[in-house]
Amino acid sequence: MEPVILSCAELSTREINAALAALPDGASARVLEPRGRHNLAVGLSNRVRIDIEGNAGYFIGGLGDGPDVVVHGFTGWSVGENLQAGSVRVEGNASECAGASSRGGTIVIEGDASSRAGISLKGGTILVGGNVGHMSGFMAQAGVMLIGGDAGDALGDSLYEAVIYVAGKIASLGSDARIEELTESDVRAVKALAELGGASFGHVQPENVTRVASARGLYNFDALKDQKY
Amino acid sequence: MCGIVGLHLKNPGLQPRLGELLTQMLEAMTTRGPDSAGIAVYADRDPAPAGNEAGPGPGQPGQHSQPGQELRYSLRSDETIDWDLLAKRIAAETGRDLRVEPLGSDSAVFVSSAAETSFLAAVRRAAPQVTVPGFGRSMVVVKDVGAPAAICARYGIPGWGGYQGIGHTRMATESAVTTAHSHPFAPAADLALVHNGSFSNYATVRGRLARQGIRCDTDNDSEVAARLVAARMAEGADLADGLRTVLKEMDGFFTLLVTTRTQFAVIRDSFACKPAVIAETPDYVAMASEYHALAGLPGITGARVFEPMPEEIHVWSR
Fold first, then answer.
1. pLDDT per residue rounded down to tens, chain B (318 residues)
2. Which of A101, A226, B31, B93 gives 20 to 30 Å between its CA and that of B18?
């Protein structure tokens, strides 16, 4: 089936999202001339493939529960925010808060992600081929991140159960994040994640990544204890 | 939120289009804050060659001009003003000839070679209801309450030429929605600042400045940052050092875009809480809160597009 063509030069964001939501499972669509448009392919629950043909704005693919969205360019803040299922792939860089609060599905950033990538992650998978900025993985509760490049300051601050694998250098760990020994099951997991990420993760050596997880010192709130927030 | 935009042209061939491009950029940011807006435009004000249609915006210097000595004062009043009459009074008080360039019904540019302090004092005495949004050798500032499209159209900004300009569209959080509280803030000659964010300790810094004899016109947080930068630069700091002072002395969220007669600078707070995108090509440097303000610029597909890191100061000079 030929993809449906929708152009941002002619249609409002609502018109585009309504047209995408009306697609039957298995259909595909191309969104042309995004020119930094926000909120494209948001809130979709059908199993469709959407190609955004250029640089896009904020919240791309957010709240998705099924579709596979590919951005052939870079994105602004909060790509794939609150993703439930399906995937969002960005061929360029992504700005701040990539995959924030996502509960499921996979977000792949082939380039760099900026600060606060994976903030408050709740079960989703975030794969970044390049670097991530400061405070990535902040308060991440569940899910996994693989960072192919370097991580900025305060990585994994106040982590809960999410695990972060870093192939490059870590500028600094956040409060209550710690480096843990890599197990065989970690190596297998990273290998699978790198394969899922594709060519931009070809340089990742699963046995040489760093595993970052919670030290559980801040896990339970205790007002009487000497807290180290 | 607030939206900020700026364009620093390297290719003089684009100068006739500065106002048009800046207007389009600012309009794209309307959704980030539609309550008030303003721009500062810089143009070379030396006499243009005869027949040059790419004029430097409002008013060509006239026969009396003494390039390098005249300052252009952007004036504005919410009450009806007879600008010519006011000009005569200020000329008499300062003892200097004065040229008026009309700029909509509520604004005018006065060109005077009087000393800056004596001119500003003369305006305060002659017409206390008139404000001076900005002044300088090259810079003209307009600002108003309302949406960017309406404001830019009213002052004819799409027709203005120039070598650099910045704009702001505001969603007020810290102080009232009035023309005086709108950005840019331009407290010193050819210095203009636009801010996206909010400062938290501005009352403290304002008090510190007041003890040094520096007064703010409004209770706006961004004005304090502009006055602080101006104060440091008056002491001899360059623009980058002035911006470092903001990082050191002011708490809060900020992306600042600050211009002088020759420089164009961007800085973000330590957490990069507010967005900033920069696009650079051989023809220009453009900055905006969001990429889609830049998406219509000529040659954008070939531009190097990046986001400044926290605490990084980016400065371009002409």
1. 899 999 999 999 999 999 999 999 999 999 999 999 999 999 997 654 443 334 444 433 333 334 447 999 999 999 999 999 999 999 999 999 999 998 988 999 999 999 999 999 999 999 999 999 999 999 999 999 999 999 999 999 999 999 999 999 999 998 999 999 999 999 999 999 999 999 999 999 999 999 999 999 999 999 999 999 999 999 999 999 999 999 999 999 999 999 999 999 999 999 999 999 999 999 999 999 999 999 999 999 999 999 999 999 999 999
2. B31
For chain A, list the domains and their CATH numbers: 93-214 (2.160.20.60)
Burial of A4 (0-12, 13-18, 19+ CB in 10 A): middle
Min Cα distance B109 → chain A (Å) is 37
**What whole-number distance in Å separates Cα of residue B157 and Cα of residue A228?**
53
Please indicate whether the domains covering B3-44+142-317 and B56-137 agree at the CATH topology level.
Answer: no
8-state DSSP, B227? H
Name beta bridge partners: B141. Answer: B40
Q: What is the dihedral of CA B129, B130, B133, B138, to 10 degrees?
A: -170
Q: What is the ipTM of this complex?
A: 0.92
CB contact under 8 A, B275 and A96: yes
Identify the sign of the CA torsion B117, B121, B123, B128: positive
Cβ neighbours of B296 in A, within 8 Å? 35
Please state the φ and ψ torsions of residue A208, each to the nearest 5 degrees: -115, 10
Residue B243 tokens, joined:
């911006």
For residues B306 and B304, what is the distance between their CA atoms, to the nearest angstrom?
7
The Cα–Cα gap between A186 and A196 comes to 15
pTM: 0.92
Within a 10 A sphere around the Cβ of A223, how many other Cβ atoms?
Answer: 5
Superfamily holding B56-137 = ACT domain (3.30.70.260)
CATH number of B3-44+142-317: 3.60.20.10
The residue extents of the domains of chain B are 3-44+142-317, 56-137
